[in-house]
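Try it yourself: sequence plus iron/sulfur cluster, in.
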Amino acid sequence: MEEEWGSPKFVAEQFQRWYAQHSHTIPAPIELPQREFAFLNFFGRGMHRHIKLPTLQELQRYLRQNAPAHSYHSSGYYDDPTADMTRKGWLGADLVFDIDADHFELPCQKVHDKWWCRNCDEQGTGHLPEICKCGKAQFTTETWICEKCLQAAKHETHKLLDILIQDFGVHPDELITNFSGNRGYHVHVHNNDFKTLNQHARREIVDYIMAIGLEPEFQGFSQRNRGTRSTLAMGGWRGRTGRALYDYISEAKPEEIKKLKLGRKASSNIINNKEQVLETLMERHPSNITPLIDPKSLKTVLNEALGLQASEIDTVVTTDIHRLIRLPNTLHGKTGWQVQTIPYGALPDYDPLVKSVVMSGSPVKLEFKRAPKIQLKGEGYGPYNEEEVTLPMEAALFYLCKKGARVKNE
Amino acid sequence: MYFCDIVKPRERNYLKQVKTWHQSRDINDKACHASNYSEMMSEREAAKYPFIQAGVKLVEGLNLQLDDLTDPNYRKVLDRAAERVTEAIIQGEVSAKLAEPLTELLSYPIAVMYVTLIGEQFLSRRFALAEAVRSYNLLQQEYEDKIMQIAEDEFSWNIVKDPEYIDGTQHNLKLRFSDYLRSASGFHEPKWKLVNRKMEDGFVSLTGIEAARLIQVEVDNWVKERVSTPSKFSLPQEIQSRVDAVRKVFEENRSKLGGSRLPEEIINEAFPPCMIYCLEGLLSGRRASHMERFGLTSFLVNIGMPIDQMVSFYTDVTDFDESLTRYQIEHIAGLKGNRTRYTPPTCATLRTHGICRNMDSICKTVSHPLSYYRKKAWRIQRREKEKAKETQAETSNTTKQE
Ligand code: SF4
Ligand SMILES: [Zn+2]
Ligand SMILES: [Zn+2]
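Structure, out:
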């Protein structure tokens, strides 16, 4: 029988080997007895969920015995984690964030991501179009990862942590930051003030972090407002709005500004009187900006600029109070990497392509379908196209988990 | 719940005690109250704010029984209670009559009793809101310290005094964001969005009036909880007649207050832009997010699209599995699972998830896609009626000419 792409049996064995040695290092999420667990294995027989693992021993034993491809726990706390959804008895939930480079528009995706229309023979690279030429939107995709996507995700995570700590007053001890094991980062907040917030409140938090619904007039940018000081150094969105605008205007090229189709005066002020605009932002109350940039143009510019300060989080994950999220420090079945907890303060220097590549073993001979290049533990691999290559275990596992290759059995 | 204590017919051990208590205090005899200053204060406070614990205890302590209420001494209380509910129905706002604090104080639980006896959800909600507005009006006249104290003592808010000027307006209070969100996340005006507030270190800056407005929501919830379960028991004639009178006022005003209903037939032209976006996505086969599918399905269910029609529509334009699609739709329609019919997400939710697209002028006046639909449908129907009239007029004109 021909070997399946991705060689799930082989990968599963490697996962077993790793869990046998390392399951004792996996810590329990806090309030363990109230959590629901869920797992997927390599052979696709659906999700095993509504599982309760009330002690650390039981949790670790489960991982050792099952070596799951994907391991999750609930963000929620329940009276009875094993009951079905309506009878669980919701007690509260951590506030969780998911930052995934998949949601971003990045130039590197043009290099490593591909799509094909299933309806006609159109194909392309990078992000999917909303709709194909043929009027349908049924695509097959192949998405990969590179250090640039991971860097972009890290940047968004930094902005998120900054808002949580500065604006929401979250203590660093109440935050857990994890590399997601794939294209991004997860942040969990354990704090009693967040725990019982309902979906509406969480939606407001999402809007806050993404600056959705932000109105300049409430950040001081209105002629009706009075004030003497610049807001640039202030906390919250008052400061962030000013700083975003400042950074955007100081960096923007004239062509970019022209593309925004601002009012004539606003456009000319930003391009030709840049220094005056920046100085006003720096030295004076934002109400002094409106004579230079009319309110409508200001909104347009802010639309572009606020992204410099807002964080691009997944809106659904954070508003869902019954979310299943990856169990930190387990393995991710689509990469073979570890979902890794990163100590507070270590994020700037954290390199997932070194740190999270935790599995090793003897070299493996692979047969490739198609795969782009990647740097793992400082070593460069690929690209590969319909060829046979022998690779160290860590690289082999990555390409197998991404289903770009299969084990070549002699 | 102290309300039950009043209406539950119990042994009448305390009756004597209550009667003496009441007789010793003719409601209009102020001199009598002055004998105990602090008690008088708390009576007045409780008359203003029925939710404060001291007031709740005071009423509980009286341990009134149903039959006690038939005593002529209570006629005023029974009348004022009926008036509270009537005001809620007609003005949407209960007045504050503090000249006779005891009457005002006791009339609140009786009003609650009337509302639960009538047992209409819509009335319960309207009454809760009207009582909350009453509290808001009174709170606005209080000093900030008083507002803070009520917020802390009655609703356990984490609130501090820390004055600052924001754009020239003095903001004296700072409130923990979680307490802020509990009340404000239901508001629609941009100024209440958290992103438009000044927040630092987990505390949101507020003016005293704004704090009072947020307390209104807490009061609304507090009252709602107490009027939401209908009750039924036989009443003495004096009370029954008043309940009947209030019910009559409610029935007379019901249709006026209910707002316009959704049109009977589905009017495609009245769909809001967000739902058109979801529909187009579905038609093109774009992989719709869960939120898009849920939003559209619940919208269609609520405007009355028959389930069979939806199932065939969905399975025709997508490669969805028929039985799974049916199950999901029936779930949203409340025919399966926990049997609640889901209402579509609000505009705010759709906006968060990136589904609010191509807003038009009607969008600016609504906060829910169903209100958009209702509004636009109404406009379309009115336009059609006018046209019909015109053509009728024209035809009659031509007939005359002939
Ligand atoms: S404002 Fe509301 S109704 Fe209008 S498009 Fe947005 S979500 Fe839909
Ligand atoms: Zn196509
Ligand atoms: Zn990349």
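One thing you can check immediately is this: Residues A 117, 119-120, 122, 132-134, 136 surround zinc ion (ligand 2) (CB under 6 Å).
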